[in-house]
Structures are given as C-alpha cells and as structure tokens.
C-alpha cells in the first residue's frame, strides 16, 4: 500500500492480490470456512484519495479507470470485463470509512475519490484492498492514530480479505499466510515473482463458489510453498500451488478452462486460479517472459491481461 499525504489530502495505491495457495479445513457453524491461504500483493493498482470534510458527510466518487487497460487489451467495452460497480452505500470503501467514523466518534466527514483498475468478482481482492486503503487513508486524514490491529479488527467485520491488505504491508514483501476465516495474518519475506493476471469475461460470486466447495479429507499444507518461495529454485514452485476453490469455480464458469488451456500451451512456470475466481494467473520466468506471455494471451482472446510483479505494500508516510 503506497500511502502519501499531500497537505490535507491523503492518496493511496491499493494493490491487487493473488492466492498462491488456498486450502479449506472445515465449514464453521457461522457459515464461513476455516481456511489456510498464502496471498501476495501484485502491481495492479486502484487509486484512492481522501480529503477530510468539516461536515460529517461521507462522499464517494467511484469509477473505472479504463483508458490504459482498454488500450493495452484492445477491448471496445472494458466494463464488460471489469464488472459492475456497487452503489455507494454498499461499496466496501464507503462502509469501511463510515464504520471508522462511527467507532472512533469522528466529527468530520470525507470526500473519497476511487479510480479502479482491478477487475471485480475476480479473486484479485480489489474491493478488499480498496477498503483497507480507505481505512489507512482515513486514519491518517483524520489524525486518529489507530493501530493496524485496531483497523484490522474493524476490517474483519466487513470482509475476510481486508486484514491481509492492512498487515502485509508491514513487512514490505506483500506476502502473507491467512488462517481462520482469512483474518489471522502472518507475514513472510519472499522473492519477487513476474506474473500475468488474466480476467476472463464474466466474474464469479464468492458465496456461490464457496457453496459448491468440498472440504478435503486430507488437507494440503502450505509449508512446501513457503519453503519454495524462500529458495532460488523456480522449478520447485509448481507442485506447491493449490486452490481448493478451483473445481467449484470451473463448474460454474467454462471460461476458466479456456484460460487454463491457453496457459498450458505457453511455456510458463506455473498457472492457477486466484481466490474464488474467475481471475487467473501465470507465473513467468522473468519480466520479458511475462511480457511475451501477456502478448500471446491477448492474441488468444481469453480475457483482460495484465503483466505484473509481486510487490511490497509498505505504507509511505510524509
Ligand atoms: O468475508 P467475505 O465477505 O469476503 O466473504 C464472502 C463470502 O464468501 C461469505 O459470505 C461466505 O459465503 C464465503 N466465505 C467463506 N469462508 C471464508 C471466507 C468467505 O465461506 N473464510
């Protein structure tokens, strides 16, 4: 998370994430699933700006920033691939800032501008990252001094992935393991990966994918992946990737198989669906390789394509 204060305005770059590992452990009485997931932030960013207001109103102006994305992907209607934007009151950014205002008895309001590039309903965590960015920016704009743990406590009540985006920046590698519902975070150092993100046409609903999932009798462990991420042996990575939501997601959307097949034809290190889909990623050998893979995937017409690298999301305060 790149957090910058300019006079009274605070601006933040909110990164996407991918799940390198996602295993389900059990279904809980509250309907959520106990899981173990390894996530890493990647360099596809939404931009958020918060200006404090003297009145108590919270205003949100949210729009797709499609220019660059559309040009790179040569889509005539990028909104079809990026997804729908929720109305203001149900936007996680609005709800997060409102919750912080209420819980911390803040007399001021805020004007929030959100410009989105991370496709929604893709498993890339866009809405959760925006909410984390909004909490950090509002905390700074209102001079509240809330700790990451306090913000995380508030965040967990709004969405399982938000604490990851608050905590992962603490270390700077952007790599973390999340357990519980996804809200218990342990950060790790990790090497940089060059990747390509792919968002096929048509997103998936997270609750719908979870509804179709099965808990495995013998869950996979994330330890081999974490060990592989510390080693220099890139080829040790492929067998350690897992996503237990991949099967139910593929039952719901055949476009994921098309993307998987397209990646299989290319000489990538590994490929997998992210989160609850339908977003997908291919790990490449280096940046030039990622650019070549991105061009081939664009030519194959499988969806929107974004070459990215894993990135730290350390807060910059000035
Ligand atoms: O917490 P979040 O809003 O991201 O969750 C969306 C939906 O995904 C939940 O309503 C639930 O159906 C499912 N989910 C789950 N177990 C988790 C996280 C999410 O079943 N650990």
Automatic annotation (TrEMBL):
Its EC number is 2.7.1.148. This is 4-diphosphocytidyl-2-C-methyl-D-erythritol kinase. Residues 91-169 form the GHMP kinase N-terminal domain. One of its GO terms (molecular function) is ATP binding. Belongs to the GHMP kinase family. IspE subfamily. Keywords: ATP-binding, Isoprene biosynthesis, Kinase, Nucleotide-binding, Transferase. Transmembrane segments: none annotated. The keyword Protein transport does not apply. One of its GO terms (biological process) is terpenoid biosynthetic process. NCBIfam families: ispE. Catalyzes the phosphorylation of the position 2 hydroxy group of 4-diphosphocytidyl-2C-methyl-D-erythritol. Pathway: Isoprenoid biosynthesis; isopentenyl diphosphate biosynthesis via DXP pathway; isopentenyl diphosphate from 1-deoxy-D-xylulose 5-phosphate: step 3/6. The gene is ispE. ATP binds at residues 119-129. The active site is at residues 17, 161. It catalyses: 4-CDP-2-C-methyl-D-erythritol + ATP = 4-CDP-2-C-methyl-D-erythritol 2-phosphate + ADP + H(+). It comes from the Bacteria.
């Amino acid at each position: 998370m790149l957090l910058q204060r300019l006079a009274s305005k605070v601006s933040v770059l909110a990164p996407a994430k991918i799940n390198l590992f996602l295993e389900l452990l059990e279904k809980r009485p509250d309907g959520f699933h106990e899981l173990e997931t390894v996530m890493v932030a990647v360099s596809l960013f939404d931009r958020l700006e918060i200006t404090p207001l003297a009145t108590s109103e919270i205003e949100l102006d949210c729009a797709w920033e499609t220019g660059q994305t559309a040009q790179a992907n040569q889509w005539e209607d990028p909104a079809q691939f990026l997804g729908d934007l929720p109305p203001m009151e149900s936007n996680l950014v609005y709800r997060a800032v409102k919750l912080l205002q209420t819980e911390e008895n803040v007399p001021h309001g805020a004007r929030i501008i959100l410009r989105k590039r991370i496709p929604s309903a893709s498993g890339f965590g866009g809405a959760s990252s925006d909410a984390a960015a909004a909490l950090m920016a509002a905390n700074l704009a209102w001079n509240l001094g809330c700790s990451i743990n306090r913000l995380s406590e508030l965040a967990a009540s709004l969405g399982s992935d938000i604490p990851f985006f608050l905590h992962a920046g603490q270390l700077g590698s952007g790599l973390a393991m999340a357990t519980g519902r996804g809200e218990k975070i342990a950060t790790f150092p990790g090497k940089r990966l060059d990747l390509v993100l792919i968002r096929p046409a048509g997103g998936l609903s997270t609750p719908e994918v979870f509804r179709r999932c099965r808990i495995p009798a013998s869950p996979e462990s994330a330890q081999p992946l974490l060990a592989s991420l510390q080693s220099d042996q890139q080829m040790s990575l492929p067998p350690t990737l897992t996503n237990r939501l991949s099967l139910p997601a593929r039952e719901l959307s055949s476009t994921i198989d098309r993307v998987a097949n397209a990646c299989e034809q290319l000489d990538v290190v590994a490929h997998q669906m992210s989160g609850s889909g339908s977003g997908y990623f291919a790990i490449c050998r280096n940046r030039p390789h990622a650019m070549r893979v991105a061009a081939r995937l664009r030519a194959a017409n499988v969806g929107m394509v974004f070459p990215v690298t894993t990135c730290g999301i350390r807060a910059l305060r000035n």
